[in-house]
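Why do we care about 3D structure at all? Because function follows from shape, and shape follows, mostly, from sequence. That is the central idea of this module. The next example makes it concrete: a single protein chain, its amino acid sequence, and then its structure expressed as tokens.
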Amino acid sequence: MVVNEFMADNETTLVLADGSSPDWVELYNPGKPVALDGWGLSDDPNEPHRQLLYGSLGSGSYRLVELDFGLAADGEQVGLYAAGGGALDVVVFGPQAPDVSAARSPDGGEAWAYVAGGTPGAPNE
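And the structure:
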């Protein structure tokens, strides 16, 4: 399970019904199905469960998470943490442009690319 894509300066890419445009993270599961109950996302390693995750994620599946907290567009980190608090994947990033995501290419890979508009919930191409 990895942080596969994120957008730290969402202005118009993902707009909710209430008009808000939250920052977002896309998770990708390249392995066996995983139960996410109690896992968390955070930009603060001292508070690893700022946003709790629920449900499960099947093999080869994506989960788009609209963040309850904002990511710093001038750079910081975002991490995926297990129910017990251990870091599973932490991505440290620099300044981000509006409506441009950082995405693993290929999905789940080591290399990162910037994608205008992003590909939330879909394969990174």
